[in-house]
Design a protein that fits this description.
This protein is mainly α. The chain is 56% helix and 8% strand. The strands form two sheets. It has a three-stranded mixed sheet with strand order 3-4-5.
């Protein structure tokens, strides 16, 4: 999220001081991304340094107001015109976590998927409940909440996909190409894992057939079975 452009967007409607900017941003976005007031003032200082905002006087309580400059308005509308690229978004920690989980010996991948699905379902229910309480005129907040609802639904569908893929991987008796002998040894070695695969499928893959000394055992488990 661009705090810089968010503040410029609020200032485009009129002069504000820091607490007003934070309150209005949270109102417009349904309080889904609370802003730290320190972050607001730090960003205002940078915007002023870059000539995108300027001081606009004080009130009786010594609140310093800011107004957007012509350069700031140009920057704001340039931001609106640009698509948000994948590179600008934060890394998908969940995808990275699961990608690593299936490569680390002793990790219960099923437990990770089940816990994440439970969390996503709870979040989906919360977002839906908050959206139901919105006034029909609160379009901005409604759009943000709908985005989060769609993201939660997509995450749940992806977790279902992960579950199916990992289970198929286990049923086919495959082991992963990535593994660390030291981590596997700490988790109990490769012998039992290889036996588990063989007993489940009745056949051995090219990977699981290398269960002799020095082989890299399977990296993770799904409900007790080697992936």
């Amino acid at each position: 999220m661009s705090v810089k452009h968010s503040l410029l967007a609020v200032l485009a409607d009129g002069d504000r001081y820091g607490y007003q900017l934070r309150a209005e941003f949270e109102e417009r976005t349904g309080a889904t991304w609370p802003l730290n007031i320190g972050q607001v003032y730090t960003t205002l200082s940078r915007l002023e340094r870059d000539g995108l905002v300027e001081p606009a006087g004080q009130d009786a309580a010594n609140h310093v107001f800011y107004r957007i400059t012509d350069a700031g308005r140009d920057e704001l509308f340039s931001w609106f015109a640009r698509p948000v690229t994948r590179a600008e978004r934060p890394r998908d920690e969940l995808a990275v976590k699961l990608a690593l989980a299936v490569t680390v010996a002793g990790v219960d991948v099923a437990a990770i998927v089940h816990a994440q699905r439970k969390h996503a379902l709870a979040a989906l229910q919360d977002f839906t409940r908050v959206k139901a309480r919105l006034d029909p005129d609160e379009l901005a907040a409604s759009l943000v909440l709908e985005s989060m609802i769609f993201q939660s639904e997509a995450e749940i569908r992806w977790l279902d996909h992960v579950e199916a893929r990992v289970l198929r991987h286990a049923r086919e008796g495959r082991t992963l190409p990535v593994g660390r002998p030291d981590a596997a040894a700490a988790a109990g070695g490769g012998g039992p894992d290889s036996e588990s695969n063989a007993s489940t499928t009745g056949a051995t893959s090219s990977n699981s057939s290398t269960s002799s000394a020095g082989a890299t055992p399977a990296a993770a488990t799904w409900e007790g079975k080697t992936i």
